[in-house]
Amino acid sequence: MTLTPQAEPGSDAKPGALEVLLRRMQTESDFPALSEAIGAINRIASSDREGVNELSNNILRDFALTNKLLKLANVAFYNQVGGGKISTISRAVVILGFDTVRSIALSLILFDNLENKAHAQQLKEEFVKVLYAAMLARELAGRTQLRDAEEAFISAMLHHLGRMLATFYFPMEAATIRQRLASDTASEAKASIEVLGVSYENLGMGVARNWGFPDPLVQSMKKLPDERIRKTAISAEPLRVLAGFANALCEVILNTPDADRSQALAKLTTRFGDCLPVSEKQLTGLMEKSMQDIAQFALAVNVNLKQSAFAHQATKWAGMPAPAESRLEDGIPGAAGSAQTALDDSVLHERSPILDDAADDPEHAAEHSSARAQSILTSGLQDISNSLIDDTVSINDILRMILEAMYSGIGFAHVLLCIKDGRHNTMCGKFGFGDDVQTLVKAFDFSLAAPPDVFLVALQNNADIADSPHPGDIAIPEKELSLLKSLRNQAVLAIRQSL
After folding, report:
1. β-pair partners for 433
2. Residue 6 domain-assigned (yes or no)
3. Of 192, 200, 238, 412, whose CB is crowded by the most CB atoms within 10 A?
4. Which sign does the torsion angle of CA 194, 198, 201, 207 carry?
């Protein structure tokens, strides 16, 4: 991993310091996996017709990521358009949009990989803050000419990536930097250069560039000038302005005494007033909406907001009850019912202690596995039924949901959709799920006039066959087989309706 560090303006940055830090991070067992997961998501283009399938496939490879994303898709924050419960990643893309699902996936990947160390609470506090900034930037994007609110979300979330990475991978150095900031008036950039040899900003930008984030988003991680931000900035660098404002507000919220709140907000809105005309009253409403949104996210990633100093401050600034009173971790403050119910209802892939004790009680584990499969397949059928009556959902989207339900429900190695090519009298692979499925799709092409093989025999006899890496591995119980046939029939119905 070789990157060219950017010059630190007015600093004494050590030559090659960024490469040294990146090499140190590369030796951590989890950093290469984190880089590959984020890089894979970034390589998927939303304009590519295979993009939705690739995104779904990438997410489905990670059991925990799939489960958390489906949870988030089913709470009020994300499932604003209705349309019933979301049970497949494919339907989540249809309902929420490709970019929204991608931004959720990126935030979950970051959170899941930057935790579970001795300094977990410090990281969780940092993550609550950056997620709040991301939610706020998404809301603010609607008040500007920025068309892609999800880009605003990601840019604000990554704005202090260098600080998060240092807290996780260089905890002793990060603690030293915090001590220096507490004991004197040095800037964070100066303190991080003195301790690490490179600023947090350039560390974050170097990693983000390596992960494949587009250059406008990487450039948005640059700190804005301390003086008043001119109107031309929002047209020239909208992501940088939104990310800078949202994160500046977070710092103000965390570090301002209650008595100075109004003065601090007035100073901030004056600084950004030329390019982000938002009143203090409007800002309070945006802060409340962002705090409600982050409460939903906290549910999915098991963050207790009552333990977050930033969450306590942010709720006060938004004029909301404190987390302990409003039970933020249970749902939207003041809303009827509990978001936890929505989360529990959306869990289709939850592991159970029964599965972990399979060796001691295989019969019980098999019963649980069968019930789980039936639940996923049944929920998939409901997803498809909701989609069949929606004129905005394409035939390919419906077929993708059907294949995903089969793939996730039974645990097949691959599920592939084939279409007959009448002109050439062949069956051709279209899309599917499973490892390296795109290679399989391109290679899956067989003649209907060729000597009989397993595929021709299956077609000629209307037989149901299943894919497995090992012979005899798959024995599908009658109930699950019936549900699979129902899904297949839904595919036939969808194709007929599209003609």
Report:
1. 415
2. no
3. 192
4. negative
Q: Which helix (H) or strand (E) holds 432?
A: strand 426-434
Question: Within a domain: residue 340?
Answer: no
What are φ and ψ of residue 218, in 5° steps? -60, -45
Q: Are residues 382 and 289 in the same domain?
A: no
Output the pLDDT for position 162.
94
- Could you give the number of structural domains in the chain? 2
How far, in Å, CA of 43 to CA of 61, rounded? 16
Structure tokens at 237: 């660098």
Residues whose CB is less than 8 angstroms from the CB of residue 473 and which lie 6 or more positions away in sequence, other chains included: none
Cα dihedral 353→358→364→365 (10° resolution):
70
Q: Are the beta carbons of 119 and 171 closer than 8 angstroms?
A: yes
Taking the C-alpha atoms of residue 407 and residue 412, their distance in angstroms, rounded to an integer, is 5
Q: Give residue 255's domain range.
A: 17-330
For 193-242, write each residue's pLDDT tens digit.
Answer: 999 999 999 999 999 999 999 999 999 999 998 889 888 888 888 899 99
Domain harbouring 395, CATH code = 3.30.450.40
Residue at 210 is within a domain: yes
What's the pLDDT score for residue 491?
Answer: 92
pLDDT bucket at 89, cuts 50 / 70 / 90: very high
For residues 187 and 276, state if they share a domain. Answer: yes
Asked whether 156 and 242 are in contact (CB, 8 A), the reply is yes
Cα separation, 18 vs 392, in Å, equals 48
> How sure is the predictor about 81, in pLDDT bands with cuts at 50, 70 and 90?
low
Of 472 and 360, more confident: 472
Give percent of the chain above pLDDT 70: 83
Residue 352 lies in a domain: no
Contact status, residue 117 vs residue 123, Cβ threshold 8 Å = yes
Residue carrying structure tokens 């949870």 = 71
**Number of Cβ within a 10 Å radius of residue 237:** 19
pTM: 0.83
Q: CB 102: neighbour CB atoms within 10 A?
A: 22
- Phi and psi torsions of 354, nearest 5°: -60, -45
| Cα–Cα distance for residue pair 189/195, rounded to 1 Å | 10
Could you tell me the end-to-end alpha-carbon distance of the chain, in angstroms, rounded to an integer? 51
Check residue 431 and give left, alpha or beta (phi > 0: left; psi -120 to 50: alpha).
beta
Mapped onto helix, strand or coil, the DSSP state of residue 68 is helix
Burial of 372 (0-12, 13-18, 19+ CB in 10 A): buried
Pairing of strands 414-421, 426-434: antiparallel
pLDDT at 80: 60
Boundary-marking domain end, from 310, 330, 350? 330
Residue 390 confidence (pLDDT): 84
As a whole number of angstroms, the distance between CA 111 and CA 30 comes to 13
Q: 131 near 170, Cβ under 8 Å? A: no
